[in-house]
Amino acid sequence: AGLGGIALDTSREIVKRGPKNLVILDRIDNPAALAELKALNSKTTVTYYPYDVTVPLAESIKLLKTIFDKLKTVDLLINGAGILDDHQIERTIAVNFTGLVNTTTAIMEFWDKRKGGPGGVIANICSVTGFNSIYQVPVYSASKAAVVSFTSSLAKLAHITGVTAYSINPGITRTPLVHNFNSWLDVEPRVSELLMAYPTQSSVECAQSFVKAIEANQNGAIWKLDLGRLDAVEWTK
């Protein structure tokens, strides 16, 4: 995902810094956002491919092959797809966890040094709920805990694969995602209202912290992006 919420603001911040290419894989096309990103910096070529993270692994590999054939080198993968709706149990797990694992597994075909690949960097967008759950949305929180754990394992495998990884864990950020969502079994009908009563950050503040984390490029880091700050979290299960 790169064309909505935190992802769009992060894409803006990345393009401002002028990388050669930014490839956006998203389920929903947003031509206006795409046009804006393309106009931001003439140094960066922005391309879009439709992609749903819930497709089978083979399909992810096929799409990535198209991208690698075209660009030759890809330095960074940001896994950013996510949904927040504890009525949709299977979809929450499919998008937030399984999809992230599959996309990561797919890119290993091209990056893994055991296959002659050059290595690479993976930034997984997790959530502070991964280590401090919002208990009214236990499915969402657990899916995020799973990807925090998965990312920490990836980082420890870097000496084998050549692929490093770190997790990006935003706190409560003012995006459409948090304005209205369902709690598990409706245990708390006002969950979004209660959440928004806490201090929050804007998606621009979150995006700026995200880019700082990308620049730090620290394997195994668990970054907390909250209230406009970027902090490393010491977390042991």
Automatic annotation (TrEMBL):
Supply the EC number(s). 1.1.1.1
Matching entries from InterPro entries are given as:
ADH_Drosophila-type, NAD(P)-bd_dom_sf, Sc_DH/Rdtase_CS, SDR_fam
UniProt keyword NAD present:
yes
Q: Which GO terms describe its cellular component?
A: cytoplasm
According to its UniProt entry, the protein's GO biological process terms are:
alcohol metabolic process
Q: Catalytic activity annotated for this protein?
A: a secondary alcohol + NAD(+) = a ketone + NADH + H(+); a primary alcohol + NAD(+) = an aldehyde + NADH + H(+)
CDD domains the record matches: ADH_SDR_c_like (cd05323)
Which GO molecular function annotation, any one, does this entry have? alcohol dehydrogenase (NAD+) activity
Family to which this protein belongs:
Belongs to the short-chain dehydrogenases/reductases (SDR) family.
Subunit and interaction comment: Homodimer.
- Protein name, please? Alcohol dehydrogenase
- Give the encoding gene's name: Adh
